Each structure stands twice: as structure tokens, then as C-alpha cells.
């Protein structure tokens, strides 16, 4: 970190020995060791808090992303549901209209003269007899020896 070589460390040791003295040197080195351990603990705590803040920030970002995706999916589902419901309502309305028109015939407005004349003129006549055939039947080839009655013979039988 500080790029201190052996020669520089030896010079620092000699200067410390001259200023502190040989009698106080062990106490001084112990104090420096304690100070170094306190600084390392504080650095570790700071790093842990910083890492935790970064994780929280990342988690918050992930939570926001997930919430955005959830909102997007739910809005898409909501739109699909509303379109299906509107199509279903429209189809139901059309089916009701068709059912009503099949149940009740179209009549003119009540109170009008057309309604009275429509009701009065609507009578059912007795069934009429179907007209007789105008064209004569086509002759069929019959094998010799079988007798086929003519039209006049058939009419006389009836």
C-alpha cells in the first residue's frame, strides 16, 4: 500500500529507536499495534456497511425492476380481460337482439291505422286443392306382353 521497502523500514526503526529510546520501545510498538488493529476494525466495519448499502441498493433496484415487470404484466392481463369482456358483452347483446326478433314478429306501432288494418287483413284461408298436372307423363318403354292401363282407364277406376 505504501510501497515501503526493507531499507526504508530499517531507517524508520533506527529513527524510532533514537527518539523513543530502547526502554520505551516495546510499549510504543504495542501502542502502535493496538492503534493499527483499531484502524483495521473500523475499516472492516466501514467496508461491511458500504457493502450492505450496495446490496440494499442493488436489491432496491431489483425490487423496482420486478415491480415494473409485475405492473406491466398485470396491465396487459387487465387489457386482455377487458377486451374479452367487451367482446362477450357485445356478442350477448347481439344474441339477445336476435332472440327478441325471433320471438316477437315486427308489428306497426300500436294505435296507428296500419296496425289495425294489419291485424284485420291477416286471415288464413282454407287450403286449396293443388292444380292438376298440365303436361302428360312421358311414355315408358314396357316389355311386350304386359298390359299398361291408359289414363282413361285409370280415371274410370277412381
UniProtKB/TrEMBL annotation:
The Tat system comprises two distinct complexes: a TatABC complex, containing multiple copies of TatA, TatB and TatC subunits, and a separate TatA complex, containing only TatA subunits. Substrates initially bind to the TatABC complex, which probably triggers association of the separate TatA complex to form the active translocon. The lineage of its organism: Bacteria, Pseudomonadati, Pseudomonadota, Alphaproteobacteria, Hyphomicrobiales. Residues 130-150 have a biased composition (Low complexity). One of its GO terms (cellular component) is TAT protein transport complex. Belongs to the TatB family. It is found in: Cell membrane; Membrane. It holds the Pfam family TatA_B_E. It is a single-pass membrane protein. It comes from the Bacteria. Its main location: membrane. One of its GO terms (biological process) is protein transport by the Tat complex. InterPro entries: TatA/B/E (IPR003369), TatB (IPR018448). It comes from Candidatus Filomicrobium marinum. GO terms for molecular function: protein transmembrane transporter activity. NCBIfam families: tatB (TIGR01410). The chain crosses the membrane at residues 6-25. This is Sec-independent protein translocase protein TatB. Keywords: Cell membrane, Membrane, Protein transport, Translocation, Transmembrane, Transmembrane helix, Transport. Residues 114-123 have a biased composition (Polar residues). Residues 101-158 are annotated as: Disordered. Part of the twin-arginine translocation (Tat) system that transports large folded proteins containing a characteristic twin-arginine motif in their signal peptide across membranes. Together with TatC, TatB is part of a receptor directly interacting with Tat signal peptides. TatB may form an oligomeric binding site that transiently accommodates folded Tat precursor proteins before their translocation.
Amino acid at each position: 500500500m505504501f510501497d515501503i521497502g526493507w531499507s526504508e523500514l530499517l531507517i524508520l526503526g533506527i529513527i524510532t529507536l533514537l527518539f523513543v529510546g530502547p526502554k520505551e520501545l516495546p510499549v510504543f510498538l504495542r501502542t502502535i499495534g493496538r492503534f493499527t488493529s483499531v484502524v483495521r476494525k473500523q475499516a472492516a466495519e466501514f467496508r461491511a456497511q458500504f457493502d450492505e448499502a450496495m446490496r440494499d441498493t442493488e436489491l432496491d433496484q431489483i425490487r423496482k425492476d420486478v415491480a415494473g415487470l409485475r405492473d406491466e404484466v398485470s396491465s396487459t392481463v387487465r387489457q386482455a380481460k377487458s377486451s374479452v369482456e367487451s367482446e362477450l358483452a357485445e356478442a350477448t347483446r347481439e344474441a339477445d337482439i336476435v332472440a327478441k326478433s325471433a320471438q316477437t314478429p315486427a308489428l306497426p306501432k300500436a294505435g296507428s291505422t296500419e296496425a289495425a288494418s294489419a291485424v284485420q287483413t291477416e286471415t288464413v284461408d282454407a287450403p286449396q286443392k293443388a292444380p292438376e298436372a298440365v303436361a302428360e307423363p312421358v311414355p315408358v318403354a314396357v316389355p311386350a306382353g304386359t298390359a299398361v292401363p291408359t289414363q282413361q282407364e285409370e280415371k274410370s277406376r277412381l
